[in-house]
């Protein structure tokens, strides 16, 4: 794949709002998962989440805010950050050459479930007319495009927990194919609501306590909320305008397991294929990869099949590659997770650090790779893979390179 | 009617997150105040609740100006 530059990052996540606060907190390997306080979660099997505590949306009018769910608000905050970081004023760009690509899983459920409650309690007149445009998965793409006057090739990707990484992959292709000059790409998710948590709980994949990927005592993942959006440009264009370049997106691959509505293929064959496709598209050999940012669902089948997929592709070299799941610190941001993983990995590569998998304490013989347990590790990383996986066997892999 | 007009401007100001002084009587709901059809729906329900009146579909649209809304509501209140 022709190189695509990442020239800006925007992040709203439990460890911090903005890249500086986010990075300062995650590099320490601390936990940002806490008891849910936004509503009474005492009847739920999982009562913890990664929650964004200080979201400043004061630059948005009250008239606009009442029309949006939290997932759109977080997306607008992340979009503002990434454009500022990239030093791009969209008012000076051809709006038809700018696109927005967003991943999301659940839609704006707090808005939707509140209005459903009002529908049944107060009747038709109790429902906000904005519900129709607030709840659905493409609302953040719409709000970002309206806010900045973006009119180019754009897309919302709903691919369960793989949505954001898939959105970034397709955005990179659009830049590579010169269908757009600038793309805002990432994801947003606001699952800390009564009904969204219930839906996640009924799947049976949520943890009661610490989120322990690849650990023998794992009991599932913890949900997290937030948004992350990167700015993508053609590498040559980015260099010629003197942009700060965080890194390059060099490869992208995706596949389906085609096996079960929830569970992944137990041997990770679909994921292995997606990894191979990504390596091919980047022109890499397996030995070129220095680090893998894993999905780390912390379900037995999820962790074992991910480990098997990595071993299938990398063979004996697999044990030499650090494989970590930094989201163990702040929860799984579902349809936004891949974008958070990309931002975290790019910042870590700049600092010469590998982020850890925290809460790790008991080895699992089936998961025998180097998961970078509990503490960040100094290491120069030139090329990395990021993995996202969704229910129903969706696999997405992105290859990135330090500039 | 004067009281209704003042009350209505305050109502619009709160509704649109604007200062009352920015709400002109001749301001068109669509062209000047940039209200779309969903905001008109919210406005109609809010007016019904605020003034305890019933408004029919189409009685207020975004082609009306603020003074039209004052008259419509004023007539309902008698």
What's this model, at a glance?
Chain A is of the alpha/beta class. Chain A has helices at 19-26, 62-65, 70-86, 109-122, 131-134, 139-148, 163-176, 194-202, 235-240, 269-282, 300-314, 337-351, and strands spanning 4-13, 16-17, 33-35, 48-50, 98-103, 155-157, 182-189, 226-234, 247-256, 291-293, 323-324, 353-354, 377-378, 383-390, 394-401.
Description:
- The complex is a heterodimer of chains A (403) and B (78).
- By secondary structure, chain A is an alpha/beta fold.
- In chain A, 32% of the residues lie in helices and 20% in strands.
- In chain A, helix 1 (19-26) packs across helix 12 (337-351), helix 7 (163-176) packs across helix 12 and helix 10 (269-282) packs across helix 11.
- The longest helix of chain A is centred in the N-terminal third of the chain and has 17 residues, at 70-86.
- Chain A is globular, with a radius of gyration of 20 Å.
- The mean pLDDT of chain A is 95.
- With 78 residues, chain B is an all-alpha fold.
- Chain B is 54% helix and 0% strand.
- Chain B contains three helices and no strands.
- Chain B has helices at residues 2-16, 37-51, 66-77.
- The radius of gyration of chain B is 11 Å and the shape is globular.
- In chain B, 21% of the residues are buried.
- The model of chain B has no long low-confidence stretch (mean pLDDT 90).
- Classes of the chains: A alpha/beta (403), B mainly alpha (78).
- Chain A binds chain B through residues 61-63, 67, 125, 128-130, 132-133, and chain B through 16-17, 38-39, 41-42, 45, 48.
């Amino acid at each position: 794949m022709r190189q695509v530059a990442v020239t800006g990052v925007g992040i709203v996540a439990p460890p911090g709002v903005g890249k500086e606060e986010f990075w300062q907190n995650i590099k320490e390997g601390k936990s940002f998962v806490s008891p849910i306080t936004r509503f009474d979660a005492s009847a739920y099997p999982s009562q913890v989440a990664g929650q964004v505590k200080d979201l400043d949306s004061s630059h948005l009018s009250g008239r606009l805010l009442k029309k949006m769910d939290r997932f759109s608000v977080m997306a607008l905050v992340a979009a503002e950050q990434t454009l500022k970081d990239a030093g791009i004023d969209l008012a000076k760009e051809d709006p038809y050459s700018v696109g927005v690509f967003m991943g999301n899983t659940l839609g704006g459920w707090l808005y939707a479930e509140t209005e459903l409650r009002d529908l049944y309690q107060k009747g038709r007149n109790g429902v906000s007319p904005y519900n129709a445009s607030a709840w659905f998965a493409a609302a953040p793409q719409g709000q970002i495009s309206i806010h900045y006057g973006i009119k180019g090739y754009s897309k919302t990707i709903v691919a369960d927990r793989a949505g954001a990484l898939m959105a970034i992959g397709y955005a990179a292709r659009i830049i590579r194919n010169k269908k757009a000059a600038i793309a805002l790409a990432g994801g947003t998710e606001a699952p800390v609501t009564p009904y969204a948590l219930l839906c996640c709980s009924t799947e049976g994949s949520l943890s009661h306590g610490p989120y322990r990927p690849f650990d023998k005592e794992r009991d599932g993942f913890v949900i997290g909320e937030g948004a992350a959006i990167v700015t993508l440009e053609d590498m040559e264009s980015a260099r010629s305008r003197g942009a700060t370049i965080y890194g390059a997106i060099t490869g992208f691959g995706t596949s389906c397991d085609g096996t079960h509505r929830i569970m992944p293929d137990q041997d990770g064959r679909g994921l292995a294929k997606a990894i191979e496709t990504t390596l091919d598209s980047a022109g890499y050999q397996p030995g070129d990869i220095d680090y893998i940012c894993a999905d780390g669902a912390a379900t037995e089948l999820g962790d074992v099949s991910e480990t098997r997929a990595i071993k299938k592709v990398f063979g004996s070299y697999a044990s030499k590659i650090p494989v970590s799941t930094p989201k163990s610190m702040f929860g799984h941001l579902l349809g936004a997770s891949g974008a958070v993983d990309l931002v975290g990995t790019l910042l870590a590569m700049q600092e010469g650090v590998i982020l850890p998998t925290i809460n790790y304490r008991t080895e699992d013989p089936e998961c025998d790779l180097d998961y970078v347990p509990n503490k960040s590790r100094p290491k120069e990383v030139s090329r990395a893979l990021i993995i996202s996986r969704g229910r129903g066997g969706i696999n997405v892999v992105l290859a990135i390179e330090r500039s | 009617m004067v009281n209704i007009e003042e009350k209505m401007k305050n109502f619009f100001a709160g509704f649109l997150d604007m200062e009352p002084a920015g709400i002109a009587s001749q301001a068109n709901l669509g062209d000047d105040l940039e209200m779309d059809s969903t905001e008109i729906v919210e406005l109609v329900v809010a007016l019904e609740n605020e003034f305890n009146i019933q408004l029919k579909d189409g009685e207020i649209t975004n082609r009306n100006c603020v003074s039209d809304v004052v008259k419509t509501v004023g007539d309902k209140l008698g």
